[in-house]
Amino acid sequence: MPVPIIDLFAGPGGLGEGFASLQGHKRQPFFEIALSIEKDAVAHRTLTLRAVFRRLRGTKDVKHYYSYIRGEIDEAAFRRIPAVASAFEHAATEARCLELGKSDEVSIDREIRAALKGQETWVLIGGPPCQAYSLAGRSRRANDKDFHKDEKHFLYREYLRIIQVHKPTIFVMENVKGLLSSKHSGDPMFEKIIADLSMPTEGLEYEIRSFTKKGDGSSLEPTDYLIHSERHGIPQSRHRVILLGVKKGLDMPQHQLLAPVARPVTVKQAIDDLPRIRSKLSRGDSVEAWRKAVQASPAYLRGWRTECASTMIETMRAFAAAATSTTTGGAFISRGYRRPKKPTELQQWLHDRSLGGVCQHEARAHMASDLARYLFSASFAHSWGYCPRLDVFPPRLLPDHLNVRFRNEADAIPFKDRFRVQCRNEPATTVVAHIAKDGHYYIHYDPSQCRSLTVREAARLQTFPDNYFFAGNRTEQYTQVGNAVPPLLAYKLSRIVRSLLNEMSRRKRRRAGDAIQNRPAGSVWRNLPEQLPVLADAG
Predict the structure, then answer these.
(1) 101 FRET partner, CA 20 to 30 A, in 59, 76, 206, 294?
(2) Which residues of 201-220 are buried (b: 16+ CB within 10 A; e: fewer)?
(3) Within a 13 Å sphere around the CA of 211, how many CA atoms are in the beta-carbon half?
(4) Residue 385 and residue 408 in contact, taking contact as beta carbons nearer than 8 Å
(5) What's the rounded Cα separation, in Å, for the pair 77 and 88?
(6) DSSP structure string for 266-277
(7) Bridge-based pairing state of the strands 239-247 and 187-188
(8) SS3 content of the chain, % helix, strand, coil (to 5)
C-alpha cells in the first residue's frame, strides 16, 4: 500500500509530482497524493487535471488525456468519457480548493483524516507562501509601516497546526532563501520556526534535519538547510530552504544526503530541442513586420562609444539575417519524437513520446524597441559569454524609465539586470512568478529567435514533465510555473524520505522478530509480525 502524502499550499503540484512519481516494489507508486490543498482556483484546476492523469496513466484511457492537451477534444467532451469522468470524481476528493487559515479547520481536519484512512505512517509536504520572507518582497515594502503585521509572516503556523493535530511521521517544508534573514518585530523568523516545528505541542517532538548535511536543529547552521538546485541536476540556480522533519521516538536512522552532480545542467541542455519559433510584435504583427523590426535593431547602436560597437553591430546584423522562423508557436505543436541514444537524467524525466509534440510553447508579443534590446542582449551573451547589464547598454537601448536614467556618468543605475539573457552554457537564473509580468528577465539565448521564454521553456527549467498541462491563460500559466518547486528536485528528496521509511520498517520487523524468539510459550505476541505495517522496499 502506498504511503499517503498530504500536500499543503500545493500550488500547481511541483512538490507533489516529485513524490508521486517515485516507484517502489514491482514499479508501483511508493507514495500517493491522498490530499492536496491550494487556494488559487487556477492552480487547483492544474492539480485536478494532474490527479486525473495519474489515475489514467497505465491504462488504455490515458490516450484521452493526450487528446485533450493536444487540443483534439474540448474539456466538455473529455469529461464525458466514462473513464475520465470517474478519474475526475477521484480527483475532486484528492485536490481541494481551500485557503488554510481561512477555511473551516474542522472540515479540513475531517478531510485529512478521511484521506489518511487510518494509516499511521504518512508524510506531510508543502511550502507556505513566501512573499513576506522573500528578499524581493521585503525590498518592495521597505517603507511599509504595516509590513510587520502581514499575516503571511505566520502562514507557516497553518502548516504547524496540521502537524500538531495529525502528527505526520515525516514532513518536508520548503521556503525561500530570504527566510534565513527575515525578522518580525526584530526577532529572527527562522529561529522561531525551527523552535516551533521541533516541538509543535507537548509530547510531540521532531528532529529538524537538512537534506544536504548530517545533524539536526541542535548542530546545524541556518544555511545548512539551503539547497542549491543547480548542484543537484536542476537547470536553474534556484536556492531554497527545505526542512526535513522526522518524528522522534520512531528509531529513525540518519538519512542519506542529496547527492551533487558532476557538472551543472545548462539552459541549452534543457530547452534546445524545442521547436524554434519567433516572437510577435505587439502592434501590427506579421512575419514581414517582425523581420523588419529585427533587422532595424542594429541601428540602435549608432553613437555607442565603445570599442566593441562595430563588432556588436555586425553580430546583430548576422543574427537578424538568420531570423527566418515563421511560426510563433502555439498551444500544441505536433512533431515526431526521436529518442536520444543516451538520454540524460533530465531528458528521461521530461520527455514523453506518447505526447507526439510540445504543449504550451507559444511566444509572447513584444514592442519593436524590446526586440532590439533582446537581440542586443542575446548577441552580446553569444559573443562574450555573459549577460550585459544596463550600465553597458547602448544609450538608445536604455528603457525610458526613471529608474534607469541617470544625470551623469557618476550616477549608478538601479535594476541593472532589468534585461537578462539566460545564457546557454549555464543554469538559468531562478524562475519566479514575476515571469508572468514580462519576459525581460528571461530572454532566450538564441538571438535569431529574438524573444523571451515560453511557458514550456520555463516549465522545462523548472523540470515539469512535457506532459504536465497548466490550466488558465498564459499569464496564469507563467505564475504557476514560477511559484512551483522543481518536480525533479522533489523526486530526489522523495527517494531520501523513502529510504528513511524503509529503514524504519526494517528495524520494526527486526525488533518484532527478536521479540518472538524471546517470547514465552503461548504469548500474545504470536501474531505481531502480521500486525506491523510493511512498506514496499525499493532500496
Answers:
(1) 206
(2) eeeeebbbbbbbeeebbeeb
(3) 30
(4) no
(5) 13
(6) PHHHHHTTSPP-
(7) unpaired
(8) 45, 15, 45
Measured distance CA(395)–CA(393) in Å, rounded: 6
Please, which residues bridge with residue 33 across strands?
Answer: 5
Q: Please say whether the beta carbons of 323 and 449 come within 8 A.
A: yes
Return the C-alpha cell found at 492.
Answer: 530526489
The full 3-state SS of 95-154, as one line of letters, equals EEECCCCCCCHHHHHHHHHHHHCCCCCCEEEECCCCCCCCHHHHHHCCCCCCHHHCHHHH
Q: How many residues does the chain have?
A: 539
Cα–Cα dist 363/528, whole Å: 61
DSSP H or E stretch at residue 246: strand 239-247
- What letter would DSSP give residue 172? E
Q: Which cell numbers hold the place of 46? A: 492544474
In the chain, the amino acid numbered 115 is A
Angle at 174 between CA 261 and CA 431, to 5 degrees: 65
CA separation (Å) from 247 to 9, 70, 525? Answer: 22, 44, 26
What's the fold here for domain 3-47+93-264+486-505?
Rossmann fold (3.40.50)
C-alpha to C-alpha distance for 261 and 156, rounded to whole angstroms: 31
Residue at 423: amino acid letter: C
For strand 365-366 and strand 280-281, is the pairing parallel, antiparallel, or unpaired? parallel
Distance in angstroms (rounded) separating the CA atoms of residues 99 and 422:
35
C-alpha cell at 179: 527566510
DSSP 522: T
pLDDT tens for the 539 residues of the chain, in order = 899 999 999 999 999 999 999 998 888 999 999 999 999 999 999 999 999 999 999 999 999 999 999 999 999 999 999 999 999 999 999 999 999 989 999 999 999 999 999 999 999 999 988 555 544 543 444 454 544 444 555 678 999 999 999 999 999 999 988 888 877 666 788 898 999 999 999 999 999 999 999 987 778 999 999 999 999 999 999 999 999 999 999 888 889 999 999 999 999 999 999 999 999 999 999 999 999 999 999 999 988 988 889 999 999 999 999 999 999 999 999 987 777 889 999 999 999 999 999 999 999 999 999 999 999 999 999 999 999 999 889 999 998 754 444 444 444 444 577 899 999 999 999 999 999 998 899 999 999 999 999 999 999 999 999 999 999 999 999 999 999 999 999 999 999 999 999 999 888 888 877 777 777 665 544 444 444 444 544 44
The region that residue 412 occupies, defined by phi over 0 for left and psi between -120 and 50 for alpha, beta otherwise, is beta
- The answer to whether the CB of 7 falls within 8 A of the CB of 13 is yes
pTM of the predicted structure, to 2 decimals: 0.90
Query: Domain boundaries in the chain?
Result: 3-47+93-264+486-505, 267-474
Residue 69 one-letter amino acid: I
CA distance 107 to 87: 23
